[in-house]
Amino acid sequence: MNVTEHARSAASASLSQQAYETLRIQILRGDLPLGTPLSRRKLAVRLSMSLLPVGEALQKLEAEGLVESRARAGTRVRIPTEEDVTGHYILREALETMSARLYAERATEADRIEMLIHAANLDELYEKVAECRGEELAQKLFEAHQTHSQFHTRLAQRARCQTLSDAIDRNQTLVVAWLFSSHTQFYRLPKRWHVPLIESLNRGDAKLADRAMRKHIRFGVDQVARRLAKLDVMLSDAEQGFRARS
To answer: Between 1.20.120.530, 3.40.50.720, 1.10.730.10, 1.10.340.30, what CATH number should domain 82-231 receive?
Structure first.
């Protein structure tokens, strides 16, 4: 590859990453709700770039489970099925309970203090979200979901297992996308929902940590399933149309 070709390749990769980050944040914020059609040509015009980097960005988003494509039907923001949600939370429960067990066994005193502070800040943030309305609610809710993802990823990092942390981070991405869909509504978490979790984990008992995290995760799957069930009627026409074109 000569210098010119190398420069073009680097520029294309940069644009592809730019498109990926822009579309990803719009999906996670709910600006592109579940089921939204994604035309490569229209996105290229909107992002002021060629079709190639947009196509590469959509392929990466599809690999993450945020978008889906079908022959002749096109591409759209992915709508999770009930089976998707169930399978996702089975995997999440396995990942998070292992993270909790390892954290209980490996966390240092500094780790325990840090995670307790992080849990308290997260609980406080969710309380503030409950008081917001309109555009402020959307912004604070996105901030809370992102902070929540970071909380669980950081917990796995303090368990001294980077591979597990990376898997949890990918898993949390779908949680944010599904929970933040503009078709769903904010639900209030129990007060001090994360502080008691960390207090249990900080006791250093792997079995106790496993039980505490399992309870924590199973509350989430019920909430997500109920909220996404409300999408069925609103998105049924879009789903039928998408299937008909494929």
So the answer is: 1.20.120.530
For the domain made up of 3-78, the CATH class stated in words is: mainly alpha
CA distance 205 to 210: 9
Rounded to two decimals, the pTM is 0.77
Q: How confident is the model over 73-117, as pLDDT tens digits?
A: 789 998 887 788 788 888 999 999 999 999 999 999 999 999 999
Name residues whose C-beta falls within 8 Å of residue 108's C-beta, 6 or more positions apart in sequence.
none
Structure-token pair, residue 74: 């096109």
As a whole number of angstroms, the distance between CA 57 and CA 92 comes to 25
Amino acid at 175: V
Report domain extents, the chain: 3-78, 82-231
What is the distance, to the nearest Å, from the Cα of residue 147 to the centroid of all Cα atoms in its chain?
11
Q: What pLDDT digit, counting tens, does each position of 144-183 carry?
A: 888 988 999 999 999 999 999 999 988 888 777 776 554 4
* Whether the Cβ atoms of residue 177 and residue 23 lie closer than 8 Å to each other: no
Q: Could you give the CA distance from residue 223 to residue 246 in angstroms, rounded to a whole number? A: 31
Radius of gyration of the chain (CA): 20
Question: Please, which pLDDT band fits residue 236 given cuts at 50, 70 and 90?
Answer: low
One-letter amino acid for residue 201 of the chain:
L
